[in-house]
Amino acid sequence: MAGILAVLIWLIALSATLLFSGKLGWFPEQISEHGGAIDQQFIRTLVVVAIAFLSAQITLGYFIWRYRDRGRGQVTYTHGSNKLEVGLMLLTGVVFVTLAAMGQKVWAQLHLKEAPPDALQVEVTAQQFAWNIRYPGADGKFGRTLPKLINDQSNPVGLDPTDPASKDDVVSLNRMAIPVNRPIQLILRSKDVTHSFFVPVLRLKQDTVPGMAIPIHFKAMKTGEYEIACAELCGMEHFKMRGYLMVMSEQDFDAWLKDRAS
Ligand SMILES: [Cu+2]
Q1: Centroid of ligand 1 to alpha carbon of 207 (angstroms)
Q2: How far is the CA of 125 from the centre of ligand 1 (A)?
Q3: Stretch 216-237: mean pLDDT, rounded?
Q4: CATH topology of domain 120-261
């Protein structure tokens, strides 16, 4: 019986590893400047975890097999080895700190480093259950917004019409157009609860938090239409919170924005 259990553990561990290494149900293509580095970091982490997982499961199966009951009735007890435990803990610590150090470079570039000065500013205001995308218009300045002016139908972000800078602001529902190969600076906000702005093809995911304006930047390298999802369970209709990222040429983008402004 114990022999069967050991073999079963080995088989489950092996098939789980094969599922991952065969990249079944893997990520969609990636189209952002930093996406390659993020994928590399993910794969590095996965390989390290797979080595730990496989060696633990193989050892577990081995002990079950080796010490299965063969009717000898003789057992001995051990109090373990402190040296071995400290050693394994240190090894785990070193591995994880190294992984974190390797990953922090791309993380810092995206989250801590300022966007390049020529970046296009786009504001994203999440709400139950939609994305409001705002562009500053020709003046390059976002107009003032006031919470009391918010109206879900006619003024979803509460633009203040008395502010001249708000006159040319463009607000788009669930559709974010951006030019290809140009840095984009997003400012993420939320009107109600915590949401998470997730664009799988950009490998970009950031919470939007009420009361905070969270900056993040990226550059998309390939035109096309991609999905924006909310990655935070934010209410009953969370599943409906879907937007589209349209990456287009600079000319197409200008035309799109002009069309929206008129
Ligand atoms: Cu949401």
Answers
A1: 9
A2: 11
A3: 94
A4: Immunoglobulin-like (2.60.40)
